[in-house]
Amino acid sequence: MKRIVLTFIIIILTSCMSTKPTSNFNNYTNNTPPITKSLFHDKNSTISEKSIQEILDGNYNLPDILNVAFVKIENSENQRNYYWSNENYLKSQQQYLNLFTEQFRSSPKVKSTSTIPTFLISKNPTFTNIRESAVRTQSNFVVIYNINSDIYSNDKLFSKTTIKAFATTQLIILDVKTGLIPFTTIITKDFQDKKNDTDLNIRESTYRIKNKAVLLTIHEIGKQIATFLEKGKK
Prior knowledge:
- The chain is of the alpha/beta class.
- It has helices at 2-18, 24-31, 49-57, 77-83, 87-105, 127-136, 202-231, and strands spanning 66-72, 110-115, 141-151, 162-175, 183-194.
- It has one domain: Rossmann fold.
- Helix 5 runs parallel beside helix 7.
- The chain is globular and about 70 Å long.
């Protein structure tokens, strides 16, 4: 009798294991058409649903000739007012801009470079504001960048005589004609050094080391820009 019961249990378990469960999700996805357009209605959207579909389904081609304009976005209005009176800050900003300019001028696609004056850019710039300013300068490419650097605080791995700084540079390229952004990057680098004989004080050492960290980010972005412009050749 025990053998009969045991055999019956084994048969039941085997039949249960051999039965494939039906997935409700699979039935749902197999029996319904795919979603090909947005089902969300955002009243605050500045791009129509039709335009969104055209943008995502379209192909972007880099223009054959580039007239590049540069725009630097400050972190805050207070910082801008403070640094405008700092000689070292002004010199370093010109150095960064010169490096970006050299990186773009190295491409045969770039016909001209310029800088959009700050009084053409609003205090709280928008893409519309920047795009319209670029049109007035007949630039079809706008390079928008932001640089932030500081010193690592409470870093116990380094001695008091060693200063370690970091820098983060964000950069995007705006195609003025299409309004698209075909290139974006964010690079963070750090650099450490000690006060040297040419530094007048620790403050000057700090500034020099922060500047080195920024330059590392710009050189890295330069490599990415060169690759981007090279791929855009026809």
